[in-house]
Amino acid sequence: MNISTDDILKNLTEDQLSAVTHLDGPMLVVAGAGSGKTRVVTRRIAYLISQRIWPSQILAMTFTNRAAREMQERIGRLVGEVPRNVGTFHSCCARFLRQYIEVLGDGRTKDYIIFDTDDQKALLKQCLNDHPVTAGLSPGIIAELISRAKSACLTPQEIMTKEAWDNAEAILEVCQAYENRLRAQNAVDFDDLLLLVARLLRERPAIREIIHNHFRYLLVDEYQDTNHLQYELLKLLVNPATNNIHATGDPDQCIYSWRGADYSNIMNFEKDFPNAVIIRLEKNFRSSEHILNAASSLISNNLNRIDKTLIPAAPTENPQKVRLVTVGSDRDEGLWIARRIRTLYLNGNPYRTMAVFYRTNRQSRALEEALVRAGIPYQIIGGLRFYARREIKDLLAFLRLKVNPADRISLERVAAYRGGVGPKTLAAIEQCAREHGMESFTLLCQPDFAQRWKKKGAKVLDFANWCRQLNDLPCTPVGHAVAAVHDFADFTHHAYDREGPPEARLENLQEMITNAILYEREHEEAGLNEFLQDIALVADVDAHDPDRDTVVLMTLHCAKGLEFPYVFIAGVEEDYLPHANTVADPDQIEEERRLFFVGITRGREEVALLNARARASWDGGWERQPSRFIRELPMEDIVRTNFNLNNPTMPRRQTFRRW
Ligand code: ATP
Ligand code: MG
Question: Is there a catalytic annotation at residue 7?
Fold first, then answer.
């Protein structure tokens, strides 16, 4: 394809242009929301390709699969080719590991499996059970500790010493057992994907050199949300001879410090990469002036920031003030939003131009009910993930076991699905497998299992026979493999066996097979292991299909990087925004304010903020106070409305108290 540089360089401001056409050396684009940072990243990649840089020599990383996909599509439109190495931190690292993990020499192979948070907790539960002192601890707490340690490039011990944990020694043993078992099962967790690549780059100069020669240009969007591990990884990935790194970010939008993100990484960029070109983009191309004024005024209350104002690139025609809607209850909140959506739709705006944000997932239920009642199509991002559904996890366990016989967690799941063999028998099989120097599943699949097992038990022999048949099913092509396992294990029959209506389960299973067939078409050479690794990396926000004409509902955290003409933010109340868990800590309040700021700056034309006077809440309370952040919004850019239907959900108790 003939690449047109005119297309690549059109509709850019002078500052954007100088960032896009920058060639060698470090560069930081630091700018406010909606100023074209992501546009600069995509255009610069296209520009580099137009300057005869091979697409495979460019590595671009961002935080969500959705943002990565959007970037790929935009670049594809400009240069006719989608560069392979544009992805999330995790997907790019998963690809490196597929190539190099064996160099680590810890027994893991390229067919490694990625454990998601559920698998991780199941494994930790086993480790905790083996340590009676820690039996009362929840796997979630340990998972969080391990993840925090890995993202900060520390050991769990270092974290615990700082925080004075009880039973630290026993917990440490649990953490160690967890790592050993992961390794033994040829598995990694999400943080390992990055950690192991960083280790490879640090400890193996030969690999570092290959990578440095291979990737000539490194680009990172949303740099403000990098944690210490990502920061270390980036420093290792950059070739020090050229320092070709291009980072973009906005410190006001750092909303992941609870996961270890550290926006001082942006502040230190010049120190880390001396002679960096710093480009600031001053104008906002997204939102109308009232929205920008409201957002600027809000964020100016954060003490810990560098002052900058958001200026609209051009005056908007008939700009709408930010609506501040006080409603009687959560029911009224849903009703008001549904009515407004309906009006906007009837005025010719497709549903996909509208988004509803909230602080916590549990707020979605009431909103969802209101939309269902009003007959408005919607998608929820980040509810129960498709791949976290029970029937899908079951099916995946079968597939994982075929690829990786060391996956003990999947063997347990498969055994529980089929029935007949319980945890005790599985432990005995494991013992026997160890004596034969093989994995349990491999042992079960041996034609001479009966002789090796020696003990009696028709059920075990039957199970082994069944495992052998499972193992003999084809692994490629991927679509065929998934369908074969589905039929072999009789998932249709099982869908009817479980409680509740089977339709949704059958649909999900069908969706999974279709998904595998599509994958097979798009990735002709890929095997089942690549398919499973890709699935494990799918984040919540991927569920969003921008081509379907629906309203989207999501948490404020998921909304990062996106934009919508019409934005509704529900629950702008104390204990929701800021969240109840954060009110004691001024730093966390600043982060909540940044989160609110991210929400408001997603809106192009109209933003509505809702607060309810009463709401059924997890703390049993009903009366709600408006968020402290509302007082920080400028009166002249706000229009206030009250909406209070005679609400049937108001509890009697409340009425009595008033009288
Ligand atoms: P965020 O901080 O929210 O991630 P951002 O800085 O990455 O925002 P973009 O998403 O790149 O901003 O751009 C915001 C909007 O402005 C997009 O719709 C984009 O197409 C548009 N835009 C950016 N630059 C220009 C320009 N020079 N001319 C016209 N529109 C532009
Ligand atoms: Mg962006």
Answer: no
Q: Where are the domains of the chain?
A: 5-96+201-281, 113-185, 289-384+545-643, 386-536
Does the annotation mark 38 as catalytic?
yes
Cα dihedral sign, 418-420-423-425 = negative
- Residue of the nearest CA to atom 15 in ligand 1? 286
The mean pLDDT value for 251-273 works out to 88
**Quick one: tokens of 95?**
């690809």
pLDDT tens profile 316-375: 888 999 999 999 988 899 999 999 999 999 999 999 999 999 998 778 878 988 898 899
Reply yes or no on whether the pLDDT at 501 is more than 90. Answer: no
Residue reference for tokens 């739709």: 345
CATH number belonging to domain 289-384+545-643? 3.40.50.300
Cβ of 37 closer than 6 Å to ligand 1, yes or no, is: yes
Q: Is the pLDDT at 137 greater than 60, yes or no? A: yes
DSSP 562: -
- The whole-model pTM stands at 0.83
Closest CA to 608 of 363, 326, 370, 364: 326
Ligand nearest to the CA of 250: 1
What is the pLDDT averaged over residues 572-586? 92
Residue 94: partners with Cβ closer than 8 Å, 6 or more residues away: 114, 193, 533, 537
Provide φ and ψ at 638, rounded to 5°. Answer: -120, 145
DSSP letter (8 states) at residue 10 = S
Residue 362 CA to residue 414 CA, distance in Å, equals 31
